[in-house]
Amino acid sequence: MSNHSDHTCCGHLPRRTxxxxxxxxxxxxxxxxxxxxxxxxxxxxxxxxxFAPRAKSVMWIFLSGGYSHLETFDPKPALNKYAGxxxxxxxxxxxxxxxxxxxxxxxxxxxxxxVRDVYPTIYPLQVGFKQxxxxxxxxxxxxxNLAECADDICFxxxxxxTDNDHAAENQIHTGRHRLDDPExxxxxxxxxGLGTLNENLPKFVVIGGPTRTDTRQSIDSKxxxxxxxxxxxxxxxxNPLPFGRRREGQSEAAQRREYELIDNLNELAAVEYPHxxxxxxxxxxxxxxxRMQRAVPEALDFSTETPATQSLYGLDNDATKQAGERLxxxxxxxxxxxxxxxxxxxxxxxxDSHQKLKENHTRLCAGMDLPVAGLMKDLKQRxxxxxxxxxxxxxxxxxxxxxxxxxGMDGRDHHPNGFTVWMAGAxxxxxxxxxxxxxxxxxxxxxxxYVTDLHATVxxxxxxxGRTLEVPGRKRLDIDHGKVMTDILA
Length: 490
Hints:
The structure is a single chain. By secondary structure, the protein is an alpha/beta fold. The protein folds into 2 domains: 13-42 and 245-297; 47-235 and 300-488, Alkaline Phosphatase, subunit A. 33% of the residues lie in helices and 12% in strands. The chain is built from 14 helices and 15 strands. It has helices at residues 15-23, 25-38, 77-81, 99-104, 144-147, 168-174, 186-193, 252-272, 277-299, 307-312, 318-335, 357-381, 451-461, 478-481; strands at 8-9, 13-14, 57-63, 129-132, 137-140, 153-160, 204-207, 231-233, 340-343, 388-394, 397-398, 414-415, 419-425, 432-434, 449-450. The strands form 4 sheets. Strands 3, 6, 7, 8, 9, 10, 13, 14 and 15 form a 9-stranded mixed beta sheet that branches. It has a two-stranded antiparallel sheet with strand order 1-2. A two-stranded antiparallel sheet has the order 4-5. A hairpin with a 4-residue loop joins strand 4 and strand 5 (137-140). The radius of gyration is 25 Å and the shape is globular. 47% of the residues are buried.
């Protein structure tokens, strides 16, 4: 007697598989709708730190558009002294002729307009600056509240990247130029390499972004699988994520039974597809989705915060409310054990000050200064700064020279050759300045730090050696791994 269960059906699939697929039909439809709406499925590789971690969580704050390092955290008095002069009329080496320019710059613009970072006429600083804190670091006057936190911050002034356009927003998160095959984002690698601290919340949460479809890479997991991608949340406790509420009239017990049925069907299918990672991600996504229905709204309910705390983040002022709400939500997520929180506190590209830099940065810094300072003070007073890493970054800096395209008179262009980010918190030196740019703020001096050095340092602080995070068949380049910035470690 033949075993019909081992025969093919319609010449394609084993009968057991075919029947299992029929049984999964309605489940697959429901799941497909769920995954298609928010683009992810949560998973859990149950990873552990490889060595003693200094931090439990990361709060990654990204300002889209490229803030000027010169008018924020790396002011250069030489720009005022030699304002209006060309680079070759100063006593300094002409930075355009430096070998660092060709080494680090990878333009994709047409040659006739390929002047993106080589404007030769020096543009003066658009704001004053002074030394702040006991550490004496120079910061511009647009950051009076954050200046009060300077002694808790580690400034990294020698960052560089290679993309001279806004694909650099993806590059700082993935380490890959837009002409190269994309890599998973830093948040996805953290998700892939570490276990959860809270079974009721995703390990990788995104607040305020991604800002456009073409910046999805900044939270994507690519070949790691959808379960490791970031989960975007809306700051509405009544509807924080798609399919995050029970249907009207459905009780919690009824929904629990529905999820149990789906889980049982998924497990039956797992017998037929024991090595299907997508299926395992689907099973876990339903389990997590059910638990998130309570945990996420509670985490995003600011009514439990005191008026003093809400004021600390600027929630009582229209100019600071958006950034304040997103940063406060990030603190509440970290407080509840989320591993990686990626925050977009301002809209896409708003820091991109090709023109009217003084006007734009005055307004934008005023909207960001109080909330981010409030976050730092709040983390410190709650003891969260002892096990949280804060990263404050952008995609590139701005040119020391005046942008002259289209008759420009008051702005700076994109500048990937040298810029500043800062970090704070667990395992990091405080009140410290690492690295430098040249006298005009053009090049990151020495080897500098490509963006994946930032990734390697974050992973190291979490107790993970980034070089061990490999996937069979996916060989990463040496630059993808980056190097830990050992000088900034406490």
